[in-house]
Design goal:
The chain is of the alpha/beta class. It has a domain of about 160 residues: Rossmann fold (3-Layer(aba) Sandwich), CATH 3.40.50. The protein contains 13 helices and 13 strands. Strands 3, 4, 5, 6, 7 and 8 form a six-stranded mixed beta sheet that branches. Helix 13 links the parallel strand 11 and strand 12. The chain is globular and about 70 Å long. The N terminus is likely disordered.
């Protein structure tokens, strides 16, 4: 082999001279060692996975001490109210309620008292008047409010860690919402004990007027119309409030007279009135009259597709508490009403068991199902024809309405037996 050198533009280059035959052999070797072409599949490639950003969790609820929360919500309401300047207004307060159950409690009464003081001390253009039929006839402004247990994400579900305060100002002259106010309250210093009427009520049903009250507060904005279910019956609501207060003050003859008088108005034929008649008669020892009202209440509840019965069960057991005498009578009436509806409207029923929060959920569901099965068997003992129209289900605490887990009268509704009207399966 020979080498020769030559100048190049970028310096000296030394070139190796290779004989022609060796060149051929070298090229062949190089070809053999060259990388082979990769044969790609003709199948389409899977699209590349694109990472999708997950929405950020909602910020935690900022809750104020109870008194401060009420002040903030009231200030929010009255400062934003769009009303003519230089005028004064009559204001009535429709008693505040729990935003989930519709019940009144020690806490809602205390809140109403605080609101009254706030108005008197800070907003002189509003004159607070008693909530009665005479004052409602003048079409005043109506103050309504709900006090709802919520979790840290602001939802009325799961474990409740705070309260949502909702206030609304409704103008009966225009039929519209004037203003809204909101705040979040801490749980400390709050007494959620239900007032006697709500504590003693044996049944809980979807009351359209109460539902309309809650929707007016929680489901509207300023300028929206007042919920029709509430607006159309607000005159009756004042009478219900008067009768309820008489019962709470243990004036049972007076409450019975007031509740009974409400039935003269067609709008008075509704669950809260029949509940009041039942309770007053029961306190006066008029058992037969009480059970007649219980039957009406049960019929209304099942007709509305949902009826909750506040049975008291033995602690941790499926049998009814032995010290509760009315249960036998309740079961007889519930069986009779169910049997009648099943025959006349071909209605079937789900008997659902519920428990309060606390303990493991699988155990809660099992206990709830056992209680539902127990009630079903008690109903079948009265009317065997219900065997083919009743199913059972254990919900545990998944649908707790109060969700405090205290096991006291306030969350007794969480330990309910609920009747839901269902469509019967088609017969083959």
């Amino acid at each position: 082999m020979k080498y020769f050198s030559r100048n190049a533009a970028f310096g000296s280059e030394r070139v190796l001279m290779v004989p022609r035959r060796m060149t051929i052999l070298l090229c062949a070797a190089l070809a053999a060692c060259a990388p082979q072409e990769v044969v790609r599949s003709t199948a389409p490639e899977a699209p590349a996975t694109v990472a999708v950003a997950q929405p950020a969790p909602p910020p935690p609820v900022v809750a104020l001490p109870y008194g401060d929360a009420v002040k903030l919500a009231a200030r929010d309401l009255f400062t934003k109210a769009k009303l003519p300047d230089g005028q004064s207004f009559n204001l009535v307060i429709d008693p505040l309620v729990d935003g989930t159950t519709g019940m009144q409690s020690v806490a809602t009464v205390a809140m109403e008292q605080q609101v009254t003081e706030i108005v008197a001390n800070n907003y002189p253009r509003y004159q607070v008047k008693p909530f009665n039929s005479a004052n409602l006839a003048a079409a005043p402004l109506v103050f309504i409010g709900t006090f709802t247990p919520i979790n840290l994400q602001g939802k009325a579900s799961g474990e409740r860690d705070a309260y949502r305060v909702c206030f609304a100002l409704a103008d009966l002259k225009t039929g519209k919402i004037v203003s809204k106010g909101f705040a979040r309250s801490q749980t400390g210093g709050i007494d959620p004990t239900p007032l006697p009427y709500f504590r003693d009520a044996p049944l809980w049903v979807n009351d359209k007027i109460v539902e309309g009250y809650i929707k007016t507060c929680q489901g509207t904005s300023a300028g929206d119309p007042i919920n029709a279910a509430y607006l159309d019956k607000v005159s009756v609501v004042a009478g219900i409030d008067e009768a309820t207060k008489a019962y709470n003050n243990r004036k049972y003859k007076e409450s019975l007279a007031l509740f009974t008088a409400l039935l003269r108005n067609p709008a008075g034929d509704q669950p809260r009135v029949h509940t009041g008649i039942y309770l007053s008669n029961a306190k006066l020892g008029r058992r037969n009259a009480a059970m007649q009202e219980f039957s009406k209440m049960a019929s209304q509840g099942m007709g509305a597709k949902r009826l909750a019965v506040k049975f008291g069960f033995q602690n941790g057991g499926s049998a009814l508490a032995k010290d509760q005498n009315p249960y036998d009578s309740w079961l007889k009436e519930l069986a009779s009403v169910s049997s009648k509806l099943a025959k006349t409207s071909e209605t079937c029923f789900e008997v659902g068991g519920h428990t309060g929060r606390g303990g493991s959920e699988p155990l809660n569901e099992r206990l709830a199902l056992q209680r539902a099965e127990y009630v079903k068997q008690r109903l079948l003992a009265v009317h065997k024809d219900l065997a083919n129209v009743i199913t059972t289900k254990g919900y545990g605490s998944s649908e707790a309405l109060v969700a405090t887990g205290k096991g006291d009268p306030f969350d007794s509704l969480d330990r309910r037996i609920e009747f839901k009207s269902t469509q019967c399966p088609t017969k083959s």
